Amino acid sequence: MILGCMSGGSPFFWIAAHRAHHRCSDRHGDPHSPHILGRRRLGFLRGFWHSYFAWLQVRGYAYQGSAIQDLSCRPDLAWIDRHWLSWNLVGLPIPAIVGCLIGGSAYDALIGFLWGGLLRQFVVLQLPFLVNAVCHLWGTRPYDTGDQSRNNALLGLLAFGEGWHNNHHAFPYSARHGFRWWQVDLAWYVIWLMERVRLAWDVKRPRFSTRGEFSSSAPLLDEGR
Question: What is the residue range of 112's domain?
Answer without folding.
Answer: 91-134
